């Protein structure tokens, strides 16, 4: 049995948390020693913070509970609402249980004196049960990595072959080519300007028969734009400069041109960069200037569509319901995903679709929602029928915002019939796009499931994860930062991520946190019904999930095929290659090849060199993507992490530093590692980056951790 997932849904003012059924994944672990218990340390209580410095917050019942422990006992703890001077003190702590406010909040527990570098544990208080917060004062140790040892990001796009002459080649440093300025290079020197660096640079440049001009640089770096001597070969000149001991590195200088196409303006009431921020985030307005999708066909296999909605009915060229006999949507999910992909635009109605001139094949494979439930499941036999019919009707793209029921029916994630149908569709030249799944954080089932769900996990399918915006109350799309959501499933076969939304609470009303688009005007479940369903185009809903990210990628695939010449002009592999190769790097280890960029994907198909993305080169892994941890096992690829507060590893700061203060006092000897899990599979394997301190620490004393150098992991790696 297949089953549809919904994610978080807001409709007609009532939030609905719909059932999510996803495939489970397992993990291994290594052995660990069990040392004898050392004698308890002599208490060295930290001073109690001065009264009156913070406003006391009540411990409200109903939230998560936190058991606070420390070695030695008697250490003062401050509970702070992160970023605010609001706190509660716990003095003389031995074992104290804290129950913060019941609403989700970001909290920080600080052990020790607030004026003397307290050990801080930051947690997301989300009403999710009991936790233990621990501090080992005698064993509190700090370390750092050599940030320059971080290697170029090992994303598959760096090794893509067969790209056209006008398509991007990331990770390649070239000093020649149409996009490179051959008259100058950027030279980074080893000595800072204030320490005589400018004089050293002038001597180097004089010896090379040229001169340079200071260039803006990050703190601690001195660099200059240096002219290439007349008649000199830029590549050879750069190589000669790089060979000098005073020079740290040499970079090409690139040309920039205005965007080669202006954005296409749409006039739909909600077609703006706040209500439909996701279209602008993906670059659809520029993509539409290359193609609006005329002639392309998307097949949406879901809960059907609202055929009463003229923004959708005008796009439907065929519809069928395999269970109900009609494609009319009684749920809302199918209407939402289809409208994200193809809703008509430039009219008086609400929303625009990513491929607004693309035609739609609408398939309803689910039973009708009822008055008491909208969590129906579908049979993969009906899904297979729909896939086969879509191929026969010359669909260019099949969009699947649905997933397996493996969490509820163990070992039933993989389905042979579904697999064969998907494989046959891809072999017939149809691009298949599917949602990665919404349970990476265990928010739906209580157990995290990080690996890709089916059908997204099948070979050849473009698996789509979800990104979201991190905003404040006054932020706009332009001022927000983007990240991969904690619920978005991932793994080696993840294609890209696209906006899926990540609302901070069920009562949130900011469209920047959701994907806002149509829902059905004929919902059966009371909480899904729109209060004013007439006309049908007045019925809309807030959704969040990988289901909503998927039709954005499907729309881009359809636009690409239309631009390339229509049905059969681009193979599914070629579509995936271009989408992967033109994605934006948002510096998240679970982003796959990056976040969807519709503009660059269409520019690549059009051969528009003015829109090609060429850098940065090389792409570095950010220290913020690393975790440090204490471990005892060796010889395997899955570390047994000892850290109490950070069982998945302690986040490394952007400066490359970390602090280990949560190894149990009774743990005995341990080692320290730092890890970047490139494919997110929980194993230290090829393509990851890893570094070991190379010393044996003891949990009862501060450890002197030498600076750690990171290296790319090769096949056959085992933990030292």
Short note summarizing the structure:
Helix 7 (380-392) packs parallel to helix 8 and helix 9 (546-564) runs parallel beside helix 11. Strands 16, 17, 18, 20, 22, 23, 24 and 25 form an eight-stranded mixed sheet that branches. Strands 28, 29, 31, 32, 33 and 34 form a six-stranded antiparallel sheet that branches. Among the domains are: 2-23 and 268-582, Peptidase S8/S53 domain (Rossmann fold), CATH 3.40.50; 65-137, Immunoglobulin-like (Sandwich); 180-254, Phospho-2-dehydro-3-deoxyheptonate aldolase, domain 1 (Alpha-Beta Plaits), CATH 3.30.70.
Mind sketching the topology for me?
Layout: E1 2-3, E2 8-11, E3 14-17, E4 65-71, E5 75-81, E6 87-93, E7 95-98, E8 105-111, E9 119-125, E10 130-136, E11 141-144, E12 180-189, H1 197-207, E13 212-215, E14 222-227, H2 234-242, E15 247-254, H3 277-282, H4 284-287, E16 297-302, H5 310-313, E17 316-321, H6 333-342, E18 359-364, E19 377-378, H7 380-392, E20 397-400, E21 403-404, H8 416-427, E22 431-435, E23 462-470, E24 481-484, E25 494-499, E26 515-518, E27 540-544, H9 546-564, H10 572-581, H11 598-606, E28 627-631, E29 650-651, E30 657-660, E31 669-676, E32 689-692, E33 697-698, E34 711-712
Parallel strand pairs: 4-10, 16-18, 16-20, 17-18, 20-22, 22-23, 23-25
Antiparallel strand pairs: 1-19, 1-21, 2-3, 2-27, 4-7, 5-6, 5-8, 8-9, 11-30, 12-14, 12-15, 13-14, 23-24, 26-27, 28-29, 28-31, 31-32, 31-33, 32-34
Active site: 302, 333, 547
Organism: Vulcanimicrobium alpinum
Family: Belongs to the peptidase S8 family.
